[in-house]
Amino acid sequence: MMAIRYPKSIVAALGLSIVISLFFSCENNNSLELKRYYSEGAAIYQTHCLNCHAADGSGLLALIPALNDSTFLKNNKASLACAIRYGLKRPIKINGKAYDENMPAANLAPMEIAQVITYMNNSFGNQLGMVTMDEVEADLKSCK
Ligand code: HEC
Fold first, then answer.
1. Residue of 103, 113, 128, 140 best suited for mutating to test ligand 1, as the one with most atoms within 8 Å of CB
2. Residue 131 Cβ contacting ligand 1 at under 6 Å
3. Is the pLDDT of residue 73 over 70?
4. Ligand 1: distance of its center to the CA of 51 in Å?
């Protein structure tokens, strides 16, 4: 009996297409997850944040900072969960302007914090990707 021998190039192409399709299905899962976090986060934002930071994230005059300072959000990524969970009261600079009012604590679960940060990080002109529940749980362990 003769074994069928496929040319190497066909085997290689097949292998490559499997790798590519795995890669894209992963990509799709990630962006699906991001979309899910984002839409849950939008609802949480409306209930817990919109009153102060406004629907478009623009804040309020000199009292409440806007949420569109991507550089601040990126540099303070690891402490955002703590600020949301336990409140924030320290002088900060947002878009070059100084703020020092009190942000109250929000009684949210780690998953909800991850969702609302993911919403904020991908709204108001920010494009900062997603923050997972695991990251939030880790960040909450080192709150100061
Ligand atoms: C009662 C009003 C109020 C509510 C409600 C509120 N914030 Fe804030 N937020 C503030 C104030 C005031 C500051 C500035 C605090 C400071 O200067 O220390 C702030 C600061 C921030 C900052 C850091 C500065 C910036 O502009 O990036 C983030 C991020 C933030 N809030 C996100 C949220 C999110 C998310 C929610 C909802 C879970 C929320 N806030 C709810 C008033 C509020």
1. 103
2. no
3. yes
4. 10
Say if residues 128 and 70 touch (Cβ distance below 8 Å): yes
Average pLDDT score over the chain? 92
Torsion of CA 78, 60, 51, 34, to 10 degrees: -40
Q: Cα–Cα distance between 117 and 44 in angstroms, integer?
A: 10
The atom number, within ligand 1, closest to the CA of 80 reads 29
Residue nearest to atom 27 of ligand 1 (CA): 67
pLDDT in tens, 12-34: 777 777 776 666 666 666 899 99
50 lines ligand 1 (CB under 6 A): no
- Single out the residue of 130, 124, 3 nearest to residue 56, CA to CA: 124
Could you give the angle at the alpha carbon of 126 between the alpha carbons of 26 and 135, nearest 5°?
A: 55
Give residue 19 CA to ligand 1 midpoint distance, Å. Answer: 43
Output the six-digit token pair for 13. Answer: 């192409």
Residue that is written with structure tokens 């944040």 in the block: 49
**Cβ atoms of residues 73 and 80 within 8 Å:** yes
